[in-house]
Design brief:
With 72 residues, the chain is mainly alpha-helical. It has a single domain, classed as ACP-like (Non-ribosomal Peptide Synthetase Peptidyl Carrier Protein, Chain A), CATH 1.10.1200. 49% of the residues lie in helices and 0% in strands. The longest helix has 15 residues.
Length: 72
């Protein structure tokens, strides 16, 4: 699942997928904007057929946070 999330992120943010790990900061390490993060969230929802709570999205700081949110 990690690689799928990385692939989704790389659709919206110019980043080397080989450098992205669970600990990668979406904003600080790869420069994702709020708009990028909204697009990533929407793509994750569509791919996994889930609805991510809007209240949780501001707390998503790393790639691992996305994974934990999906597994919750």
């Amino acid at each position: 699942m990690l690689q799928e999330i990385i692939d989704i992120i790389c659709e919206y943010v110019e980043a080397d997928p080989e450098t992205i790990t669970e600990d990668t900061s979406l904003r600080n390490d790869i420069g994702a904007t709020s708009f990028d993060l909204m697009n990533v969230a929407q793509a994750v929802e569509e791919k996994y057929n889930v609805s991510l709570p809007n209240s949780a999205l501001p707390r998503v700081k790393t790639v691992g946070d996305i994974l934990r949110l999906l597994n919750a």
